[in-house]
Amino acid sequence: MRLKKLISLVLLLGFLFSCDSNDSRRPSDSTVVGDRPVIALVMKSLANEFFVNMADGAERHQMERADYELIINGIRNESDLAQQVALVDQMISRGVDAIVIAPADSQALVPALARASAAGIVIINIDNRLEPEVLEEYDLSVPFIGPSNQAGAKMVGDFALKSMAAGSKVAILEGITSAVNSIERRTGFEEAIADADMDLVTLQSAEWDQTKAAQVMAGILSQYPDLDVILAANDNMALGAASAVGMARTEKEIVIAGFDNISAIHPLIEAGTVIATVDQFGDQLAVFGIEYAMEALESGAELDDRETLLELITADTL
Description:
Layout: H1 2-14, E1 23-24, E2 38-45, H2 49-65, E3 69-75, H3 81-94, E4 98-101, H4 110-118, E5 122-126, H5 132-137, E6 144-146, H6 149-161, E7 169-174, H7 180-195, E8 199-205, H8 210-223, E9 229-232, H9 235-248, E10 255-257, H10 266-271, E11 276-279, H11 282-299, E12 306-307, E13 311-314
Parallel strand pairs: 2-3, 2-4, 4-5, 5-6, 6-12, 7-8, 7-9, 9-10
Antiparallel strand pairs: 1-3, 11-13
Helix pairs in contact: 1-3, 2-11, 3-4, 6-7, 8-9
């Protein structure tokens, strides 16, 4: 009950944001064009290349199919939950047919999505899985389409650690701690560390942010100058970690791994600064969600979760 009250508070805060507070890639004054359904894509931060690629992929898909209208929205930073709640409320007011959402938080968005579902809007969950227990509390069924974040983190963790000696010291940089994808990636990293008989010396959140990751990592390097490996739950944080390692000017070689396969990480992989990342095909995640939404609108059926592919990206595969 306490959790439900806390989540409802976030929903109420969302109403404090005006319609001008959100970032929109394709604003529209009308959500009705002929008989075509209107699908809203609600993402996390459009300052993150991963979500820019997602938006670009969705725009290309809409132009190719041309049998639905698309509204693309994103928030200004990964942790701005109230703004994302406000975006969902705006899409309810505009009467869209479906919302494809990459939630910034796995719990706090559920009440707003329950309101959308009650208004007859189809909801499809991508990228970050909504918390099943909270969905159940709101009697809400939302299909998730996306990769196994735990499997992806285990994959890149295994690769990063395979040439390290047993007992090597490892740090994990995780995302927003309440987000299911962050929890799953952390769990995958922890499994890789345990399997390789490594020493996890610290687990800290940098909230998916490059600048914060650099700051957090500077403190970790000061505390653990003998650190061997950094496992970052997204490439933005891997970039921040690499910057902190460079600024520390340590002679010790530190292995860094990331997740997401954004283009900014490629030069670091080619240079050997970052050993690997994981491609979850971000430019296609929204497309998968949109196609699933169209399927739900056409069939009227309740859809099941669907898992998508992952690929390990290294200097060899680049």
